[in-house]
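User: Here's a chain of 106 residues. Predict its fold as tokens.
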Amino acid sequence: MVLVSGCELAMLCDIIIAGDNVHFKLSEIPLDTQRLVRAIGKSQVLELLLTGKNISSVEAKKYGIVNIVAEKSKIVQIALDFAQNTSSFSKIKGFELKKKYNLKVI
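Assistant: Prediction complete.
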């Protein structure tokens, strides 16, 4: 089992591909809970903060935190395939999509 305590950092990512052996945990109160609240809802965030509960990558996918859950042995290939598929889009199109959906463009 891999425990990811950088849940706040993960929430900054556009796409998250997690191994099926990964568990997420809010190890401390995040500086910006709003991003997580928007992703999974206030009640879920409070539950995770108050209980210190770990959630599996499968649960994280159900909550909308993770986009893709992959077997540990296949995760690199899935990430490379995803990157190759999305690299065919122009940067301008990517920026336009992020702007349209009010996502921060870095």
